[in-house]
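step=encode ok
step=design start
structure_in=
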């Protein structure tokens, strides 16, 4: 699939099945502005049906950090300066994280420096987090006069680290250090900055080598079973997926249903 020449994000294929996505406003700490919302929305929509891409690596350009949140200097458009208009804009912000969960490709976030506000949300909505030792995370929304529950934070953070600490971070806006992120199970790997890409790429290659349908159904099952009604509903989802994959394996000409 062809991708346009974006201006606030950069897209390149590192390998035939692994895409590198970079938030590309380094002078503004990769802050999310209206153009980036538009371009990310377009990218996620294209990836949802691009089966040639198996894994997406997500990073922020520049030395400052991953993403500093919403670009408050850009401010709101005139049509957003009222309740209906702002609500529409707010909805589009939240839809970015929903789209990240809906695409079949696992997303590996490579985080250095600050991931605050929207940057924190992008990190949480990713499937795997590889962080540098200077990475730090904040539900910064509450520090700029908004509620601490924004852009999927109240959904993802309690599920990732437990409600007790999630309440603390969301109510205070305090930063979570890289060490705290590792201790709480928020991140999978903590490495030096120069090791972010090699570490994430190793994980991506492992995932890309798996059957793409198996990877897709695994991500889908995790998404659904985070909210399922109980054990029985979770088992039904798993049973359906495993049955589909056994049939898929046999119809693909494999000698045995199991790899």
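sequence_out=
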């Amino acid at each position: 699939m062809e991708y346009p020449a974006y201006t606030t994000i950069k897209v390149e294929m590192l390998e035939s099945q692994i895409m590198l996505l970079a938030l590309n406003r380094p002078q503004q700490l990769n802050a999310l502005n209206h153009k980036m919302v538009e371009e990310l929305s377009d990218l996620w929509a294209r990836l949802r049906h691009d089966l040639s891409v198996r894994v997406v690596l997500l990073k922020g350009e520049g030395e400052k950090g991953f993403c500093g949140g919403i670009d408050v200097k850009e401010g709101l458009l005139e049509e957003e300066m009222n309740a209906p208009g702002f609500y529409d804009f707010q909805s589009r912000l939240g839809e970015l994280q929903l789209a990240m969960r809906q695409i079949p490709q696992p997303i590996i976030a490579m985080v250095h420096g600050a991931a605050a506000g929207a940057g924190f949300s992008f990190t949480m909505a990713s499937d795997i987090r590889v962080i540098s030792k200077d990475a730090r995370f904040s539900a910064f929304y509450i520090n700029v006069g908004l509620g601490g529950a924004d852009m999927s934070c109240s959904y993802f953070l309690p599920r990732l680290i437990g409600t007790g600490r999630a309440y603390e971070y969301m109510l205070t806006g305090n930063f979570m250090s890289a060490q705290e992120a590792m201790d709480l199970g928020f991140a999978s790997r903590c490495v030096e900055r120069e090791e972010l890409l090699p570490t994430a790429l190793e994980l991506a290659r492992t995932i890309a080598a798996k059957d793409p349908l198996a990877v897709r159904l695994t991500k889908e099952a995790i998404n659904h079973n985070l909210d399922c009604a109980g054990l029985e509903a979770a088992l039904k989802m798993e049973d359906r997926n495993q049955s589909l994959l056994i049939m898929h394996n046999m119809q693909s000409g494999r000698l045995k249903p199991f790899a």
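step=design ok
step=annotate ok -> DSSP finds nine helices and ten strands in the chain.
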